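idk why but the lab printer keeps eating my pages so im just putting this in chat instead. protein + 4-deoxy-L-threo-hex-5-ulosuronic acid:
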Amino acid sequence: MTNFNFRYATNPTDFIKYSTDELRNQFLISDLFVSGEINLTYSMYDRYIVGGIMPNASALALETIPYLKSENFLDRRELGIINIGGKGVVTVDGTSYELDKKEALYVGKGKKEITFSNAGSDQALFYINSAPAHKSFPTKKVGKDNAEIVQLGDEKYANRRVLYKLIVNSIVETCQLQMGLTELKEGNVWNTMPAHTHERRMEAYFYFGLEEEQTICHFIGQPQNTRHIFLQNQQAVLSPEWSIHSGAGTSSYSFIWGMAGENLDYSDMDVCPPNQLR
Ligand SMILES: O=C[C@H](O)[C@@H](O)CC(=O)C(=O)O
Ligand SMILES: [Zn+2]
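predcted complex ->
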């Protein structure tokens, strides 16, 4: 079963008037993983799609949705997949790719049949992002051995973390999609601090690996006018082009970042000094 919902984009002037519920309705994506379901959110931020795929005993096929007005999901799009569960298999027009936990697969425009299934006794959980594409690039798996690893942060600022660049242009050719995974070291809680914006690209964060009964406080808004959204484990949040995206957890956690827009330059960020945030 494929479920889909839609989010309009908003602007910074209206944004600051939102109530807690309005903020959550606009930006929070919950219930991504439901057994036997594909859950997709189509947003007007660069037409980015965020989704969760949780196969049961039978494989799940990624079908087109009405917002695309296309015969197949990838007729005019590209797709990034990261498995955060047990071993899984993604089949792309008859070719199978096994994905272990935290491994990624890029699928280019024009592929027709994409199916998702479990490959072992542990439940596979496929987190996906998709953006419009004008060109077809080869399908490519990015595992732990070909990820680009960056050590970030400092224990004394409670932000020591390891960033795995997976679907980035030094590793995979894409039209506009970029994805990766960041793991907080135990006892460290702050991600993406100093925070940044990049008006060239929107971004989506998906938090997972949070301890039970703990929470993430995610910060959103222009650097001098921020709001927060509390997230639970395995929830995602949309970040407009003009917004920071940073969070603090009540335990350590991991998250997947994904973005699309004007360029493929990961380092194109406008950093906000912590003491200037408001
Ligand atoms: O634009 C890049 C993204 O916000 C993330 O890659 C940042 C991140 O994972 C981190 O600092 O921990
Ligand atoms: Zn960013």
